[in-house]
């Protein structure tokens, strides 16, 4: 087992937040249209923005019964807390129009599905990271794929697994880091989908988890 202060701190966060983490992951098994579309919206909005703000917008649309009906102008007014308002509003509208197509793809093997999501034919605004984020949030690919965001990259660097520049990885380095993260999860005996949430909570400094 690795001896590292970051590992000890991570275990502390994991044990403290384990019930919340497991409860969230249990909810990902619900793949009705509202849940899938909500997570699709959330992952588009959360890219390069605060997860808290993205979740607030999605929750507001759900509470108003407006997730399937909001128009682009009203959505833009709601996006005052996120970056790239016009672009993200456009991506959300297009994603909603493609929900039926997306649902047909959910039976694909997880890596194939992620590749499609991140491709030019997939969902606008999604690269490997946000595709992985969306799939984690709808309960697909557990133990196979994971989210290599800047918090994961920083953690891997802190424990001596990654020596590159944070936020500057390409497809090949993403996949290399993903394998290292999955190996680390096995070593730490924490399921990877739980480990990535624990790392996010630890490295982001956030008190709450938003998805």
Describe this structure in words.
The protein is mainly alpha-helical. It folds into two domains: 5-27 and 145-204, Helix-hairpin-Helix base-excision DNA repair enzymes (C-terminal) (Endonuclease Iii, domain 2, Orthogonal Bundle), CATH 1.10.1670; 33-137, Hypothetical protein, domain 2 (Endonuclease III, domain 1, Orthogonal Bundle), CATH 1.10.340.30. Helix content is 64%, strand content 0%. The protein contains eleven helices and no strands. Helix 2 runs antiparallel to helix 3 (51-63) and helix 7 packs across helix 8. The longest helix is centred in the N-terminal third of the chain and has 23 residues, at 5-27. The two termini are 29 Å apart.
Order of helices and strands: HHHHHHHHHHH
Number of DSSP-assigned strands: 0
Output the CATH homologous superfamily of the largest domain: Hypothetical protein, domain 2
Mean pLDDT: 93
Number of domain modules: 2
Classify the beta-strand content into a percent band.
Answer: under 5%
Oligomer: single chain
What is CATH's topology name of the largest domain? Answer: Endonuclease III, domain 1
Note the gap between the termini. Answer: 29 Å
Helix content: 55-70%
- Taken from the alpha-carbon principal axes, the silhouette is globular
Largest sheet geometry: none
CATH class of the largest domain: Mainly Alpha
Provide the CATH architecture of the largest domain: Orthogonal Bundle
What structural class do you assign from the helix and strand content?
mainly alpha
């Amino acid at each position: 087992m690795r001896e590292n202060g970051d590992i000890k701190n991570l275990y502390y966060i994991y044990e403290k937040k384990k019930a919340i983490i497991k409860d969230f992951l249990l909810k990902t098994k619900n793949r009705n249209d509202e849940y899938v579309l909500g997570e699709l919206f959330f992952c588009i909005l959360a890219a390069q923005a605060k997860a808290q703000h993205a979740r607030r917008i999605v929750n507001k649309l759900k509470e108003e019964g407006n997730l399937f009906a909001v128009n682009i102008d009203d959505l833009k007014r709601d996006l005052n807390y996120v970056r790239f308002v016009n672009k993200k509003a456009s991506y959300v509208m297009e994603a909603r129009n493609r929900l039926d197509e997306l649902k047909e793809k959910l039976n694909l093997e997880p890596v194939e599905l992620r590749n499609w999501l991140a491709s030019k034919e997939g969902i606008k605004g999604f690269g490997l990271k946000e595709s992985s984020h969306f799939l984690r949030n709808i309960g697909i690919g557990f133990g196979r794929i994971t989210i290599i965001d800047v918090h994961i990259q920083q953690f891997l660097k802190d424990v001596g697994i990654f020596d590159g520049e944070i936020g500057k990885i390409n497809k090949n380095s993403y996949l290399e880091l993903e394998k290292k993260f999955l190996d680390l999860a096995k070593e730490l005996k924490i399921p990877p989908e739980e480990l990535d949430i624990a790392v996010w909570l630890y490295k982001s400094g956030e008190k709450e988890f938003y998805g």
